[in-house]
Design a protein that fits this description.
Layout (H helix, E strand, L loop, with lengths): L4 H10 L6 E6 L3 E6 L7 H5 L6 E5 L2 E5 L4 H12 L6 H8 L5 H13 L3 H19 L7 H4 L1 H19 L1 H13 L3 H11 L7 H4 L9 E3 L4 E3 L8 H20 L2 H43 L4 H18 L5 H12 L4 H22 L4 H15 L4 H11 L1 H19 L23 H26 L2 H5 L21 E2 L2 E2 L6 E5 L6 H4 L4 E8 L3 E3 L4 E6 L6 E6 L4 E8 L9 E3 L6 E2 L4 E5 L1 H6 L3 E9 L3
Helix pairs in contact: 1-3, 5-18, 6-8, 6-17, 6-18, 9-10, 9-12, 10-12, 10-13, 12-13, 14-16, 14-19, 16-17, 16-18, 16-19, 16-20, 17-18, 18-19, 19-20
């Protein structure tokens, strides 16, 4: 019988039994459960189990704090329950089952776009810069019109911009096949067929006459040869269609001929479905939207329609059908000497950028998210929304809807006061330069609304919706909580006779000021935090190395000669680094003396990974 066999039996019963456990793993201080029904867990009962120091739920995981003996507790628990442990990543994957349908859809879109985000950020900044030098009239013309050098730069940068946005379906189809574990090169080929030069460019469809659209003529029927440049939803549908077909043919096809049959039929049928079914349906919906928008804007209640359009323009961008509005703008300019549609589009873009600005404010301590959010916000304000929407707003969900609300209000103000643009311009803050002079003041007011409303709403909702992981960065062994009021309490540098300042040189931080509820609330015991100025961890006392984390190497435990248990935890969420930047200088079971080197770490690697380098030193149960 193990040391924690009885406690493990109690815990198994109190979490709802084996049938209620979808996955279980552990970190350096706690057990991590994904429960099929979290409501079945008897939290108060669990916290009364001997050896359990507390519980909390985060990111779909029910976590039970054990302390330095968590490995032994975990081994006894898996033996008692008959469950096999899984990795932390598998636990996270299982945790998604506790999300609702909308959250799962948002999460899937975020996962699809995750590997594409760097390209979208680059493309957004490039197109935003092209808008500045090529679209804005500074009084004596655009920069491009005044300089051959900048005209060349403008033309050259489109090579990159076109590759990123016009060819976006290629990246989407590849990402889907990668995510779903099917053949990635087939996804790339499928994406290429959606944007082939043989097809009429998606941007040219709205202005093309029906007889000018090229067709595949099969004798008994004809199919329009139309591309999907920059379109997201058709590419996603095509990608999942390919995944379904490949998995289907893999199941029914004999292995001996699968290399020929599976890729051939999967790809050909997916391409046919994309162009023969999804394409015609998508463009028919687009034509209906185009006709509806024109009718709404030329009606006597166009201000009311403006609210609807302002609310739903951002979702329209996701489908790729927003290209149809270019033809409407052109027609409005011809009929009325200006367009009331384009100002709403600019306001929608500004609103989505302002929602990102709200996220930047909320996540100002999350270095990793800032790397995407800041350039995404800039490109959005310069008229390119894809990095903002797919990199930030859709990932979290609520910022997207906050942007929609701000866009709706701003659109009603714009159309209700008759704001008109001379023509299509930069769809962001510089767009005010395209507004007819007499309407610039009221458009500026609408812009302020499009900035303020999403920004404020995102902050209000975000404070309720965002987890500590979202605010500070994904956490594993240290769970950062909401901003804490800094305490003036004197740090407890000596605990149970052990001077914890000897662990690493640096600035000592009172434990209650460490942004980690498990440590700051002293659930593990007393101690300090240290902002390190060096990169070597030393033993603060004589003892034996009792705990090591062989995969991540970010924490170490000592059984002190006086019987105390000392835990040294280097950095916040550094377990995610997979051991990069960390090296043990001792082995588990090794006897050490005070002042011996235990491990070394790289502050630069921790910073580059977007983590905090705070070293937490506690004596378990000490005071």
């Amino acid at each position: 019988m193990g040391k924690f066999t009885e406690q493990s039996k109690q815990l198994l019963e109190l979490v709802g039994g084996k049938a209620n456990i979808a996955a279980v793993s552990h970190c350096v201080t706690r057990m991590r459960f994904v429960l099929n029904d979290p409501a079945k867990a008897d939290v108060s009962g669990i916290e009364k189990i001997k050896g359990v120091k507390g519980t909390f739920t985060q990111a779909g995981q029910f976590q039970v704090i054990i302390g330095q003996e968590v490995q032994e507790f975990y081994n006894d628990f898996t033996a008692v329950s008959g469950l096999e442990g899984v990795s932390k990543e598998q636990v996270k994957k299982q945790a998604k089952q506790n999300q609702n349908i909308l959250q799962q859809i948002m999460a899937s879109i975020a996962e699809i776009f995750a590997p594409i985000i760097p390209a979208l950020v680059v493309g957004g900044l490039i197109l935003g810069f092209r808008n500045v030098i090529g679209e804005i009239d500074f009084g004596n013309g655009t920069i491009v019109s005044q300089s051959q050098f900048w005209a060349g730069v403008h033309s050259f940068l489109w090579l990159i911009g076109e590759a990123i946005f016009h060819m976006l379906p290629v990246g989407i189809c590849w990402s889907i096949t990668k995510k779903m574990g099917t053949t990635q090169i087939l996804g790339i080929v499928l994406g290429c067929t959606l944007v082939s030069g043989q097809l009429l460019n998606a941007y040219g469809v709205a202005g093309a006459a029906a007889d000018a659209i090229p067709k595949w003529d099969f004798g008994f029927t004809q199919v329009n040869m139309i591309g999907y440049q920059a379109q997201v939803i058709p590419a996603i549908l095509a990608g999942f269609c390919l995944v379904f077909l490949e998995k289907f043919f893999n199941k029914i096809c004999p292995k001996v001929i699968s290399m020929i049959v599976v890729p051939f039929f999967s790809l050909v049928l997916a391409v046919m479905a994309s162009h023969f079914i999804l394409g015609p349906i998508g463009w028919k919906i687009g034509s209906w939207i185009s006709a509806g928008v024109h009718a709404g804007l030329t009606s006597t209640v166009n201000w009311l329609f403006a609210g609807v359009f302002g609310l739903f323009y951002a979702p329209l961008v996701i489908t790729g059908l927003h290209h149809m509005t270019n033809a409407i703008d052109t027609q409005l300019v011809a009929d009325f000497g200006g367009t009331i549609l384009w100002p709403m589009i600019a306001l929608s873009n500004i609103a989505q950028g302002s929602a990102v600005l709200g996220m930047i404010f909320l996540q100002k301590k999350n270095v990793k998210t800032q790397e995407v959010s800041i350039p995404a916000c800039i490109s959005c304000y310069l008229g390119v929304t894809e990095p903002a929407m797919f990199g930030v707003n859709l990932k979290y969900g609520f910022p997207f809807f906050c942007g929609m609300i701000g866009s709706c209000i701003a659109a009603v103000i714009s159309v209700g006061t008759g704001v008109m643009a001379n023509s299509i311009g930069v769809g962001g803050i510089p767009g005010i330069l395209s507004i007819q002079t007499r309407y610039m003041g009221i458009f500026a007011l609408a812009m302020l609304v499009a900035i303020a409303v999403p920004f404020v709403l995102t902050i209000i909702v975000g404070k309720k919706k965002l987890t500590p992981e979202d605010i500070y960065g994904e956490v594993e062994d240290c769970d950062i909580v909401e901003d804490t009021v800094q305490s003036d309490a004197e740090p407890h540098t000596v605990v149970n006779g052990i001077d914890l300042t000897q662990v690493v040189s640096g600035e000592v931080v009172a434990l209650e000021n460490v942004q980690d509820e498990v440590f700051s609330k002293r659930l593990m015991g007393d101690g300090i935090g240290i902002t390190p100025s060096s990169e070597i961890i030393y033993a603060p006392t004589d003892g034996v190395i009792a705990v090591t984390m062989d995969d991540s190497r970010h924490a170490i435990g000592i059984k002190a000669a006086n019987g105390s248990d000392v835990l040294i935890h280097v950095g916040i969420d550094t377990v995610q680094m997979g051991g990069k930047g960390f090296e043990y200088l001792v082995e588990k079971g090794q006897t050490v003396k005070a002042g011996d080197k235990l491990m070394q770490f790289s502050k630069k690697e921790i910073k580059d990974a977007g983590k905090l380098d705070t070293v937490v030193c506690v004596v378990l149960g000490g005071n």
